[in-house]
Amino acid sequence: MSFDTLGPGGLDYLPCRYGASKILFRGPKRPLDQPFVAFFGGTTTYGKFVEAPFPELVERDLGLTCVNFGCVNGGIDVYASDPVLRDAAIKARVTVIQVTSPRNMSNRFYKVHPRRNDRFIEASALLRTIYREVDFAEFNFANHMLQRLRLVSPDRFHAVLDELRTAWLARMRLVLSQIPGKTILLWASDTAPSDVALDLEADPAFVTHGMIAEIEPLVTECVQVVASDTARAAGTDGMVFAEMDGAAAAQMLGPMAHREIADALVPVLRELT
């Protein structure tokens, strides 16, 4: 059963669409004909397994409509290519953009699904040349493919990593150039950005402190939230999920971390709105 629907023991995310977009977002659907704050991001923004994700908490605290455009496993490609989302960002009083991993976006080496960015579509001729011994037909997900490439050749994997980071910076610049209004770049994770960022299991994977620094001059404000020790220790407490999703839920930020994110965003948004 899809995460977009009500599963046994899981949440009903009240999936909805905005305009002609083909993407199912988390509901309930919010009006776009009155002042609102737009939230772009991945699984954390969507709030998978969390009854009240941080965009909803911000809405309650701020008293201003907050529209959750987060996508599970989404990358920046979603916001770079969807005209409905570009239009929403133009209309929004402020657009909050969660930092997402460059692994879930198309680049010179491989393509991902335009809406489900974690889905691997195909490898380019260049990547096939670099990794001649790899059968790319066996991969359905970008993360699985990247894990194999690093295992096969850590040295050659650095070329892939460099491309992902270069593509991410270019795509972020594109998205930000299309938003005339105020923007907040949000780092929301259980770890702070590092200078190396080689951990494939980190969220967001591969994004370095230097990459954030390059983008910072292009946004109105930067907000960094690293989940507290207390929030991390809470594990899946307060999360809603089916038994089969327990392992996945354990890898995600829980309700206490979402509260911390909202608490960091609200004063900044009050100043900007």
Describe this structure as you would to a colleague.
The chain is an alpha/beta fold. It has one domain (36-272): 3-Layer(aba) Sandwich (Rossmann fold), CATH 3.40.50. It is built from eleven helices and seven strands. It has helices at 43-46, 54-62, 77-81, 83-91, 125-130, 142-152, 154-177, 209-215, 229-233, 246-250, 255-272, and strands spanning 36-41, 65-70, 94-98, 110-112, 120-123, 182-189, 221-226. A five-stranded parallel beta sheet has the order 2-1-3-6-7, sandwiched between helices. The protein has a two-stranded antiparallel ribbon with strand order 4-5. A hairpin with a 7-residue loop joins strand 4 and strand 5. Helix 2 (54-62) packs across helix 11 (255-272) and helix 6 (142-152) packs antiparallel against helix 7 (154-177). The longest helix has 24 residues, at 154-177. The termini are far apart. The model is unreliable at 1-8 (pLDDT under 50).
